[in-house]
Amino acid sequence: MKREMFKEVDVGERKFRIGRLDALTGSYITTLILMQMLPFGDAQVTGGSGKNRSLMDKETFIDVQKECLKVVSEVKSVGGNVAPIPIMLYDGRWGVEGLEEDTMTVLTLTIHTLIFNIADFFQGDALNNLIKPISDLTPFSAKE
């Protein structure tokens, strides 16, 4: 079975195409997320207790978000043709209008990108159980 290379999601009144992260970036982000979400974080890896584990620092979080958003395009009609327009350019600038101050759409797209790219690491409902608390927070009817 061929691996799906993208999926389209509706967020509010807008349609977006979620793409695949490259293997190295995907591995890096998956490892970061697993270290944040697993009980005791990196305690088993480092031998620590996990008690002093902190949230991901702002710089790392923004880096993860930017990497995720670089594989997202807004699907728009341009001159009678449908075209995917990258929402974040590779230099970190926004590629489409209206997202730079839209926290919920950016967060929703980041979550969709993570789910699409790391779902293969989980079996059964394990991923759904991890994201259930987050998915209830988004005010959009973000559909696949």
What would you say this structure looks like, in words?
- By secondary structure, this protein is an alpha+beta fold.
- The protein has a domain at 6-21 and 57-135.
- Helix content is 40%, strand content 17%.
- It has helices at residues 23-37, 43-46, 58-69, 103-118, 126-135, and strands at 6-11, 14-19, 72-78, 81-86.
- A hairpin with a 2-residue loop joins strand 1 and strand 2.
- The chain is globular and about 50 Å long.
- The two termini are 20 Å apart.
Identify the notable features of this structure and list them briefly.
144 residues; alpha+beta; 5 helices; 40% helix
Can you lay out the helices and strands and say which pair or pack?
Layout: E1 6-11, E2 14-19, H1 23-37, H2 43-46, H3 58-69, E3 72-78, E4 81-86, H4 103-118, H5 126-135
Antiparallel strand pairs: 1-2, 2-3, 3-4
In short:
This protein has 144 residues and is of the alpha+beta class. The protein has helices at residues 23-37, 43-46, 58-69, 103-118, 126-135, and strands at 6-11, 14-19, 72-78, 81-86.
How far is the first residue's CA from the last residue's CA? 20 Å
**Widest β-sheet, arrangement of strands:** 1-2-3-4
Low-confidence stretches: none
Give the tally of β-strands: 4
> Order of helices and strands, N to C?
EEHHHEEHH
Q: Which outline best applies?
A: globular
How would a textbook summarize the main sheet? 4 strands, antiparallel
Helical content band: 25-40%
What Rg, in angstroms, do the CA atoms define? 16 Å
The DSSP helix count reads 5
Quickly give the structural class.
alpha+beta
Mean pLDDT: 81
Percent in strands: 15-25%
